[in-house]
Amino acid sequence: MMNEADSLTEIFRGGLPHCLLIVFSLLLTCSPVMPSEFEVISMSKYDLNGQHYGSRVASISLEARSLYSWNTSRHCVLTRLTDLSIHDFDKLRQGAGGLILMLPANILNLDPETKELITILEQSMLTHTAAVPIYFAPYNKDLEKIIDDITYTTTDSPGQNQTALAQLVVTVSANRYHINVGGGSIAANKNSKIPIIHGELIPNQLALKPTESVADGQKLPVILITANLKTFGIYNDYPVNADAAVLLVLMELFSKLHYTSSMAPKYRLRFLLSDAGVLLNFQGSKKWLEVDDNALQNVEFVLCLDTISESLSYTTENALYMHVSKPPKDKTSISNFFKLLKSSAEKYSNGLAVEGVHKKINLADTKLAWEHERFSIKRYPSFTLSSVKSPRSPIRTTIFKNDESRLVEHTLNTTRIIAEALASFMYKVDPTSSIFEGQLAIKEENILPYFGVKSILHNNDVKDAFEKYLNNVKIIYDKPDARDPEFMFYNENEVKLNVYRVKPAIFDLFLTFVIGAYLLAVFLAIQYFPRFYDEVSKLTKEDPAGQSNGHSSERVRMKSH
């Protein structure tokens, strides 16, 4: 019996405790983990006039929390874009450790109120500095389940009416998610530049009067048409560029009309397109005026295109606004064109209203409201045509869009109105007559190829169009100054979002306590097993003696009988 006890003691004193330690260590490291990888896009980041926009932080390695349960910078908030408000964003961009927003599955299915809230949130995010890394994730069912799980865990967290033991059990058994985004370092792009392309329509010599020459044609008043390509929004993607599409279609149409022998032009047409819109304070126009100011020696007016079509419409309003810095006097060029524009809208549109909006230039503001203000400061008569009434409209900066067929239809209609009014003004044609009909009719085939234009330098599509229809085409670049840059872009790295399902920190403490208690019990059992065995042995020895004495007494009693 003693040999068996010694053998059992040797087992406990030998390798068994070490094996148990290894097993428990493996169990601890193999706690439930569910790695998932998702595509994410970093929020746009840029500098303008010394002000930082976007976030300068890229890496995230934090616990995921819902929009309603985060409370420290050690939490990364994972939520839907449609659930975030401006108030929430203001708190998150300063206090959270990170923010990941899942985009809607289909923006078209949202109600008008939600669309409006999204565009307002976009504008707020684009005009503020964020101290935390912000990423956008395309809609994904698995990611949506994780968001639902985080939110469900938050709403079903232990309440005050539960016992302390019940709360402890719920807390220990709960699951958590850990988020990891390896964004690397963010560095300024020293090769940042804004391309600006411009060209002009020179009157055909056949269209001039016999007494006129090409040199005389160069003396004709200039009408400048400008637009800007939107190359980014809240993240680096290409929004709808309806303004550039309208400019390129006008360029194509008037190049055909300008060289018709029966149409003697009264004006020269210039076209200007840059990659800098309202977000970059119209830096392209500013640079062009500094470099090629002589091109506007004899300018009739400058026509700027800005948000001609609402890419994400959530109202039933149907209007075209002419924005000016001061009300035009009667019988001036801008006043006459405004009247022609109204007549054209009445003839070619279904209920489109043309209205004038007057707003003074705020010279104290570093950011201009409209592009025409760049030219008005230089004393050039100018105006902006837009489908939005207020310069603060979030539609101007949204990256989302409605059904493209609706956008094409609206852009096509607006282009026809502007083209007819401009042709009536330039060629002194009766506004009741139609110019762009037959072979000159504006069709979807004219608009669609230009809807996909992304940048002036992208595939040379814009450059080829300018060189095809215009003369004296030039491309200039606005580059930031090395010492005091007016603008700066930042390099973007492709990153992945990794989500791991893990236990909370209190689970590790609880598991450590359980393992410690178990090892302590094993240690005490090993230390006191000999004494325990001796006590058990004594009890087993005493019982047989007592039993034998009982049998002897029984035999004595039987003999006496």
From TrEMBL:
GO terms for biological process: regulation of signal transduction. GO terms for cellular component: endomembrane system; endoplasmic reticulum membrane. Residues 1-35 form the signal peptide. Residues 552-561 have a biased composition (Basic and acidic residues). It is found in: Endoplasmic reticulum membrane. The chain crosses the membrane at residues 509-529. It is a single-pass membrane protein. Keywords: Endoplasmic reticulum, Glycoprotein, Membrane, Signal, Transmembrane, Transmembrane helix. It comes from the Eukaryota. InterPro entries: Nicalin. SUPFAM superfamilies: Zn-dependent exopeptidases. Residues 541-561 are annotated as: Disordered. Belongs to the nicastrin family. This is Nicalin. It comes from Drosophila melanogaster.
